[in-house]
Amino acid sequence: RLADRTPVLLARTIENRGPDDLLINLSDTFPAGFARFKRLIEIVGTDGIDKDHARLRWKQYKEQGYEINHVDVEKTR
Question: What is the value of pTM for the model shown?
């Protein structure tokens, strides 16, 4: 399968086999099965709804014991 040999896999679900170094979550939901990845990056929009969804996911990651680093791109400009 091509997914097993490519360094980047774009998919709607992470059930697909492929690289497990990094997951970039662009969804507004908590990614089930994310724990198989070595790192997870989330990109959060600036509107209130995006931030609210991100806060819920943040809470879920914290409850599962994951270390979280936050970068505010607006403050790095």
Answer: 0.74
